[in-house]
Amino acid sequence: MPVDVALEIPAKPDYVGVVRLAVASLARKAGMDEERVDDLKIAVSEACTNIVIEAEEAGRDDPIRVSVQGTPTTMTVEIADAVPVPTEDDLEDSQGFSTRRAMSAALLASLVDTYEAAPTAEGSTTKLTFNL
Amino acid sequence: MELGLDVRTVGTHSVVDVKGEIDVYTAPKLREKLIELVSEGSYDVVVNLEGVDFLDSTGLGVLVGALKRVKAHDGSLSLVCTQDKILKIFKITGLTKVFPIHDTVDAAASGESSEA
Q1: Range of the domain at B47
Q2: Could B54 and A99 be called an inter-chain contact, meaning their C-beta atoms sit closer than 8 Å?
Q3: In chain A, what residues touch B58 (CB-CB under 8 Å)?
Q4: Strands A124-131 and B101-102: what pairing?
């Protein structure tokens, strides 16, 4: 069943779980299997968390705009975001451990069928596409 | 959304049983608990993730931070996890090479100890 839903949440930690629940529920309704729903929840959480952390560090509270579009074969989650793409320096700490941001990037790259991040005037838009 | 954190002692290890979802909202509670344990002198820690429904990079970041803290005291941090959906996250991020991951708390707590 095609879906087309938009959500706007404050860029605050307590709202990331709300987006996860809403998107997971839409995915189940669209017929996505439970294992893929788990992947989707992590990917959506990562994309929103990156924005929330950046917003907190910058002392901003721009809302996060999340839109979900469904087709009979795919589900796309678009997250409008004011976060720049991380530089290499952000990916490892002084002791050689991966940073949270690097782990987030690895999860997004691995769990999403098509991952696109495009710069916009304000920051970037992250587009996560999952095959049903 | 609440994160359940119960601490118990098994042999020479402090075991933290975590229940619920670990994300950007709840991860600070886990971080505080782990910092508290290390500051109280618990350097061999087991984090039991069997009751965890969701884990993302914020939770992973907290576990890596705790590992660095216990290592600074020649301690250890091991995990208990048998859930495929959680193990998958450790595999994707390469952390299966960083953390000893066990099937049971007893197996984790009988592992290497800083006092051994």
Answers
A1: 4-108
A2: no
A3: 49, 100
A4: unpaired
Phi, psi of A89 (to 5 degrees): -60, -25
Nearest alpha-carbon partner for B47 in B85, B88, B4: B4
Residue A122 and residue A128: Cα distance in Å, rounded? Answer: 19
Q: Which of A60, A66, A54 is nearest to A9 (CA)?
A: A66
For A60, the enclosing helix (H) or strand (E) is none
ipTM field: 0.90
CATH number attached to the domain at A4-131: 3.30.565.10
Does residue A115 contact residue A124 with C-beta atoms inside 8 Å?
no
CA distance A53 to chain B (A): 8
A70-114 per-position pLDDT tens digit: 998 999 999 987 666 555 567 788 888 889 999 999 999 999 999
**Do the beta carbons of residue B46 and residue B15 sit within 8 Å?**
yes
* Phi and psi torsions of B78, nearest 5°: -125, 160
